[in-house]
Structures
1.
Amino acid sequence: MTESKLKRALFIDRDGTLIVEPPVDFQVDSLEKLEYVPRVMHNLNFIKSHLDFELVMVTNQDGLGTNSFPTPDFEAPHNKMLRTLEGEGIVFDDIVIDKTFEHENAPTRKPGIALLGKYTSGEYDLAGSFVIGDRITDVLLARNLGAKAIFIADEEQGKVKINEAGLNDVCALITPSWDRISDFLRGGSRTASVKRTTSETDIDIAIDLDGTGACDISTGLGFFDHMLCQIGKHSGMNLTVKVKGDTWVDEHHTIEDTAIAFGNALRIALGDKRGIERYGFVLPMDDCQCTVALDFGGRSWLVWDAEFHREKIGEMPTEMFLHFFKSLSDSARMNLYISARGDNEHHKIEGIFKALARAIKMAIRRDVFTYQLPSTKGVL
C-alpha cells in the first residue's frame, strides 16, 4: 500500500491581495469599492489549473455583522468578487472569515490559527504550503502554521519590515507582482550557493537569477571585481562573490577558479531549464562593438574572437580573459561566442562582460505560463 500524498494549500488574504484595500476606512463595503489587484485573475487561473495547491481564502473582516459593518454591505461586493473569479476558472476550496475586532485579540483572528484546525490535523504538508498576503500578520500566520510566507510588498520596503519583525526565516518571497508569485510557485527560487576550496583558492559564490542586480564582490583583484559587478548589474541577478586566492603567486588561480565556481552556480540555479528562453546575445560601448551569443544547451563550447594589446588592465592580465570565459563555458555547460572590435582595451573587455550579462538576462528569462523545455531533444 502506498502512502497518500499530503495536500498543499495557499492561504490567501483578501483585501490588499486579491482586491484593492481602500486607503481610508479599509472596508470594501460597496460595489463601487470593488477593484482587483493587477494580474491576480490571470495568475490565480494558472495556479488553479496547473499547480497542486488548494486555495484557501483567509481574511479578517473587523466587526462583520455589527452596525459598523453590516453583513449585506460585505456580501454584495464579496459575492460579486467570487462570481467574477469563478468566471475566470478560480474557485476557492475554502473561505475562512474572522469577524472580530482587533482589540479583542481573538485566537480566531489572523495571525491566530483557531479557525484553521482542519489544516493542522496532519493531512496537509504545511511546510510545502504558503500564506500570501500584504501584511505582517500574514507572515506571522505562516509562522504559526509552520508554512512559508509570500509577502506582497515593495521589495526594499518589505525587506525592512521583515527584518524588523525577525521573520526572515519564514518569508520565502517579497514581491508586489502576482506574475512573480506564479513564477515562484511554479518553479521555485532560482538560487544557488557554491563553495570551492583548493590549496590555491577559497571561493564562496551565491546567485539569485530573479534578483535585482545587487552585487557584493570581493576577489582581491579590483578590475576583476568591477567586471563581475557588470554581470550582476546588467543581468539583473543578485551576485555575491567572495574569494581568497594566492594572488602573491599571480592572478591565474583566482580568475580561473572563480569562473569555474560561477559557472557551476549558473548551472545549478537554472535547474531543469523549463520555460527559459535559452539563447541570448550584443552591445555597443563607445568605440567598441561587442557581441556575446550564448546557449544554455548543456554542451560547452567557446568561440573567442577578440584581441588585446595591453599586458594588463588593472591587476587583470589580458591573457586571462579567454581563460575566464573558457572555464565559465565549461562549468556552466553553455555555448559561448564572443567577438569584440574597438580601440580602447578597457572598453572592449567591459563591453564583453556587459554583453555577457545582457545575453544571460535574455537567456534565463522564464515564461511563467510555459512548462516546455526549449529543446526538441526533450532534455538539456
2.
Amino acid sequence: MPENIKKMNITDRFIKYVGFETTSDENQSQTPSTHGQMIFSKYLAEELKNIGLQEVELDANGYLMATLPANTDKHLPVIGFIAHVDTSPDSSGKNIKPSLIKNYNGKDILLNKEKNIVLQTSLYPEILKYTGQDIIVTDGTTLLGADDKAGVAAIVQAMEFLLSNPDIKHGKVRIGFTPDEEIGRGADFFDVQKFNADWAYTIDGGEIGELEYENFNAAGAKVIFKGLNVHPGYAFGKMKNSMRIAAKFVKMLPENETPEQTEGYQGFYHLTNISGDVETTTLSYIIRDHDRNHFEQRKNQIQLLVNEINTEFGEGTAILEMRDQYYNMREKIEPVMHVVENVEKAMLELNIKPNVKPIRGGTDGARLSFMDLPCPNIFAGGINFHSRFEYLPVQSMEKAKDLIIRIIENIAK
C-alpha cells in the first residue's frame, strides 16, 4: 500500500460512506438509476487506487471492479467479494446523520431529542445482545445505509489490511461494487467474464453469523383494472368503478399469505402499491416463494384470479403484467458446497457462530449464481435494514472484515 496514504479505521470509513446519498429509484430507467450512486462509486474508485488495488475500473453503468493481486506462486482459485452502493428507497437516505454510541448501556436510545424519536428496546429487543458494544444509529429521520455500506466498508478495510500485511499469502482476489441492488437491478450489467472469479461472496447480510445460500424465487406483478366513469347521479347500470374491482381482487388472494403473517420458508403475495381512480386502478405485487413449484403456482394463481375478474366484469377489465425477477440460488450452490463450507470453517475459527438460514429476500448473489458465478451471502452486521431505526454494531462489521481476511487466508493454505 502506498506509504503516503493515511489509514482510516472501519468506523470512520463507514461514516464517511453514509455521507453519500445513494438512494436508488425504480422509476428511472438508466443505470445507475440515480446520480448519487455514480458520485459515490467514483470516490470509491479513487480510494481503491489509493490503497493500492490494481485494475480499478468503473464503467458507464456504475459497476466498479478492482483486483488484489496474488502474492504467492501457488496456483489458487480466484475469489471475489461483492457489495452494493445503493440504499433502499423505502426510507430517506438524504442527509444521514449517524451517531456513534460507545459501550451501549442496554437502554432505550434517544435518536432525536427535537422530534422525540426513540429506539425502544421493547420494540427492538435484539439490540440488547449488543450491550457493551459500540453501535452506530441514525437521527430517526433517515435510514442508516448499513445495507450495504457496511459491506463496502468491510471489503475495503480487508483489502487495505492485506495490502499492509504482505506476509499473509493469498491468491488473486476480485472486488465488485454494484448499483441498484435495492430495486432488483444490481446484476443487470454485471460482467461475469470480466470479473473472472471462480466464485464470490456478497457481503450483504444482516446480523453477525448470517450465512445464506438460499433465497426466494421472485416475481413482480402489476394488475391494471379498467373501469368506466359516469356522473354518479346517472351511474345506475353504467358505472364500472375500477377501484372497487381492484379491492375485490385484493380480497380474493389468501389473507394469511402476506409478509407479516409468514416466516422461514413460507412464501407470500405482497401488495406494495395502489394507485387509481374510477377509470383506472393499478395494484403492484411482489410474489415470493423458496420452492420453485410453489412459486409457479403462486404466479398461476394471480393469472387465474385475473381471468375470474374478466369473466365477471368483461374481457379487458383486468390486465396482468408479470415478470420473474430472480430465482433461488440453492440449486446453483449445492453442486459447489465447498464455497459455503469455507465460510463456516472460517467463522468457527473466529468464534463466530454460523447462522445458516434462507434469505427472505434476494441479493445480487442470487442472480449472479445463475450467471455461473456461485455467490453465497455473508453478514455485514447491520440490523433493521430500510428503516429509520436501522443500526450497526461496529464489532459486527469488524468481524465481517476479519472473516473476509480469514477466508482468503484459508484458501491460500
